[in-house]
């Protein structure tokens, strides 16, 4: 079965600084990998997704993520953080024949300081 | 305006009572999902439905029940058999397999059992 680990529970970053959120997955074959963002008290919104092709994926809101098979990682990055990026971020993994199931990580909360 | 509606936003119930959470979508999506979110644990799948009149158990279905009599509706009942029902509940939908079709999330219902 697939699983996801997000090692960082909470990250604080200054506005305008770069941000990197870590995600490690466990799955034998090529996974589907996702990053979602959740604003306080709200549902989740998809930022980006990877399955195959170019290992650097561009998403919405200026985010990108890089798939590294050798490290089983799919880290999310943003070059310059805005105060509105303060939220909780979830990495998720899925697979072909996983019967519509995604496995979500525990999430990383991002605080942006002025 | 297309989207997913969950009601109510906040719900309080006494221990031992069944409670039903509403989820409606007007996106014409075939698949619908219920997730439970607890602090520090990410999202866990309770039930999902790939098509009307059909549904499957997710990873934590015990103490929950669902129905899918209409394409646009997927209500979740939290029964008295659920040992720890206090949580944030998220409903989602997708056109088809979430590996290839984006999951859209509702705003959630926060259930507190007193």
Give the SSE map.
The complex is a heterodimer of chains A (114) and B (114).
Chain A: E1 3-5, E2 10-14, E3 19-21, E4 24-26, E5 32-38, E6 44-50, E7 56-58, E8 64-68, E9 73-78, E10 87-94, E11 103-104, E12 108-113
Parallel strand pairs in A: 2-12
Antiparallel strand pairs in A: 1-4, 3-9, 5-6, 5-10, 7-8, 8-9, 10-11, 10-12
Chain B: E1 4-7, E2 10-13, E3 19-25, E4 31-37, E5 43-51, E6 54-57, E7 64-66, E8 76-78, E9 87-94, E10 104-105, E11 109-113
Parallel strand pairs in B: 2-11
Antiparallel strand pairs in B: 1-3, 3-8, 4-5, 4-9, 5-6, 7-8, 9-10, 9-11
Q: Can you give a write-up of this model?
A:
The complex is a heterodimer of chains A (114) and B (114). The mean pLDDT of chain A is 93. Chain A is built from no helices and 12 strands. Chain B is built from no helices and 11 strands. Chain B is an all-beta fold and 114 residues long.
Would you kindly provide a brief summary of this structure?
The complex is a heterodimer of chains A (about 110) and B (about 110). With about 110 residues, chain A is mainly β.
Strand count, sense and barrel status of the largest sheet of chain B are: 7 strands, mixed
Specify which chain pair forms the largest interface.
Answer: A-B, 25 and 26 residues
**What is the total tally of β strands of chain A?**
12
Question: How far is it from the N-terminal to the C-terminal residue of chain A, by CA?
Answer: 41 Å
Average the pLDDT over all residues of chain A and give the rounded result: 93
Our count of helices of chain A gives 0
Which stretches of chain A are low in confidence, meaning pLDDT under 50 for 5 or more residues running?
none
Instruction: Work out the helicity level of chain B.
Output: under 10%
Q: What share of residues of chain A is helical?
A: under 10%
User: From the structure provided, what is the oligomeric state, counting identical versus distinct chains?
Assistant: heterodimer
- The span between the termini of chain B is 36 Å
Low-confidence stretches of chain B are none
């Amino acid at each position: 079965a697939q699983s996801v680990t997000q090692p960082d529970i909470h990250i604080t970053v200054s506005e305008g600084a770069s941000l990197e959120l870590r995600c490690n997955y466990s799955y034998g074959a090529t996974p589907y990998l996702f990053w979602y963002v959740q604003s306080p008290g709200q549902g989740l919104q998809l930022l980006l997704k990877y399955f195959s092709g170019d290992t650097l994926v561009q998403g919405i809101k200026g985010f990108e993520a890089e798939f590294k098979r050798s490290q089983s990682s799919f880290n999310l990055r943003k070059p310059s953080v805005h105060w509105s990026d303060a939220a909780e971020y979830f990495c998720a993994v899925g697979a072909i024949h996983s019967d519509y199931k995604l496995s979500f990580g525990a999430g990383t909360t991002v605080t942006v300081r002025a | 305006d297309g989207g997913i509606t969950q009601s109510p936003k906040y719900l309080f119930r006494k221990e031992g009572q069944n409670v039903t959470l509403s989820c409606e979508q007007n996106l014409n999506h075939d698949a619908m999902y219920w997730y439970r979110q607890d602090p520090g644990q990410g999202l866990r799948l309770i039930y999902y439905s790939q098509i009307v009149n059909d549904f499957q158990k997710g990873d934590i279905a015990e103490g929950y029940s669902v129905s899918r009599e209409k394409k646009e509706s997927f209500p979740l009942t939290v029964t008295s058999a659920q040992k720890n029902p206090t949580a944030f509940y998220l409903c989602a939908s997708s056109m088809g397999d979430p590996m290839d079709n984006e999951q859209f999330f509702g705003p959630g219902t926060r259930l507190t059992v007193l």
